[in-house]
Amino acid sequence: MQILEIKKEKKGRLLICTNEMTFPLYEKEAADLHLTEGGELSREEWERLCREILDKRVIRRAMHLLQQMDRTEAQLRRKLRENHYPDVLIDTAVEYVKSYHYIDDLRYAASFIRFHQSDKSRSQLKTALLSRGVPAQVIAQAMEETYEDHETELIRRLLEKKHYDPAQADQRETYRVYQYLLRKGFSNFQIKREMDLT
């Protein structure tokens, strides 16, 4: 592996950019390993570096990130990439935290659904979980196991909030509220039923 560039970061950290990957080290560690721009890092040196320093560091970083808040696997991977850890090290950290169930996308999805189902439609919940990197099949399983159908009640609350009265509303007002509920992710059938449009 050829070292193409060594960039200085904050607090004595360096980014070692090779022709294969980029990874963080501290100045002292790089000096101890005699890493220089244009120099070489053999496969054996890389494996020793991972074993003795980087594997432990990426796991500690993952644990720290999970201590701050619960995350999905995709969110954890994204944060570790932002810290310039290569995928091979990220895989090590993810395997470690998964082995102790520190990350569990099914648990995360079920918890998210329980917490937000009273103010979000089923569709909004799915969209939010997909954007957090939860796989579709995990969302489907979490919905099946956790979701309690509050959508009728939620639509009624939103209609109250919009001061919608089917007897008083003109066509324009009805259309506006109907579109609002569609954007919230409710089904056409549910909206029409609750708005008295059937």
- The tally of strands reads 3
Separation, N- and C-terminal Cα atoms: 69 Å
Q: What is the mean predicted local confidence, pLDDT?
A: 90
Indicate the proportion of strand residues: 5-15%
**Uncertain stretches of 5 or more adjacent residues:** none
Give the proportion of residues in helices: 55-70%
Helices, by number, come to 10
**What is the radius of gyration?**
25 Å
Task: Describe the global form.
Answer: elongated
**What is the strand arrangement across the widest sheet?**
1-2-3
- The SSE order reads EEEHHHHHHHHHH
Largest sheet: 3 strands, antiparallel
Secondary-structure-derived class: mainly alpha
Write the layout of secondary structure elements.
Layout: E1 3-8, E2 13-18, E3 22-26, H1 27-32, H2 43-68, H3 73-82, H4 87-99, H5 105-116, H6 122-131, H7 136-146, H8 151-161, H9 171-183, H10 188-194
Helix pairs in contact: 2-4, 3-4, 5-7, 6-7
